[in-house]
Design a protein that fits this description.
The structure holds 2 protein chains of 2 kinds.
Chain A lengths: L6 H27 L28 E6 L2 E9 L2 E3 L11 E5 L2 E9 L4 E5 L5 E4 L5 E7 L3 E6 L12 E7 L1
Parallel strand pairs in A: 2-5, 4-10
Antiparallel strand pairs in A: 1-2, 2-3, 5-8, 6-7, 6-9, 9-10
Chain B lengths: L1 H9 L7 H27 L1
The chains are: A alpha+beta, B mainly alpha.
The structure holds copper (II) ion.
Keywords (chain B): Membrane, Transmembrane, Transmembrane helix
Protein name (chain B): Cytochrome c oxidase subunit 2A
Pfam families (chain B): CoxIIa
Chain lengths: ~170, ~45
């Protein structure tokens, strides 16, 4: 069978299969050694009562410092708003500040429909589905102000859904 | 041209796949380059 293959066919088959192997090795390395996986990895939550989960109690929303360079950000998404909790003065938080080089764990849940959570310009890009907790840990090492956008169409006010994350030196 | 004809005669009318080869490789390289581009973007962010 192999004998009947044209010389060029052999070359492009080797090229194609070789590319596939390289791709699968990179994918497998990411998945099994580096723990890359879909952002809503089977952690469930009651979408009608996300407050029943410790992380999404109103007082636990927003930015929390865990240790010197570790932070957790809990966000309750709903049409058409990201709830980062309230500051000391009782004002709605729509902007968080994180020191450069911090490890940040984003945890997001939705109260209604599917939303997106994308810290534009970073790899923090998640789908937020009802019934699941989406989480992603990242190191914020590039200073700047990033806009958090909803990139899953969620209704008429979709474009109004945003917040900002500032990484400062 | 003469070479080609000689080859054709000796190798029992093999199809000429040069054009196919070039287009397959162009497409393959395009796919690989765009994949590397997306992956580099992922790694750099
Ligand atoms: Cu939306």
């Amino acid at each position: 069978m192999i004998m009947h293959l044209h010389k060029y066919e052999k070359i492009w088959l080797i090229f194609g299969i070789g590319s596939l192997i390289v791709f699968l090795v990179v994918l497998g390395y990411g998945a099994f050694w580096q723990g890359t996986h879909p952002q809503s990895h089977g952690v469930t939550i009651d979408p009608n009562n996300i407050e029943s989960n410790e992380a999404f109690k109103p007082e636990n929303l927003g930015l929390t410092k865990v240790s010197d360079d570790k932070y957790i950000v809990n966000i309750a998404a709903s049409a058409f708003f990201y709830d980062f909790g309230k500051d000391e003065e009782g004002k709605t938080v729509n902007h968080i500040r994180i020191p450069k080089g911090s490890t940040v764990l984003f945890q997001v849940a939705t109260k209604d429909v599917v939303h997106g959570f994308h810290v534009a310009g970073t790899n923090v890009n998640m789908m937020v589905e009802p019934g699941y907790v989406s989480s992603l840990e990242t190191v914020m090492d590039k200073p700047g102000t990033y806009t958090v956008v909803c990139n899953e169409y969620c209704g008429l006010g979709h474009h109004l859904m945003y917040a900002t994350v500032e990484v400062y030196e | 041209m003469q070479n080609l004809q000689k080859n054709n005669a000796s190798e029992k009318e093999k199809p000429d796949l040069k054009g196919t080869f070039v287009s397959v490789m162009i497409l393959g390289i395009l796919i690989v380059v765009s994949w590397i581009g997306a992956f580099a973007l992922f790694l750099s962010r």
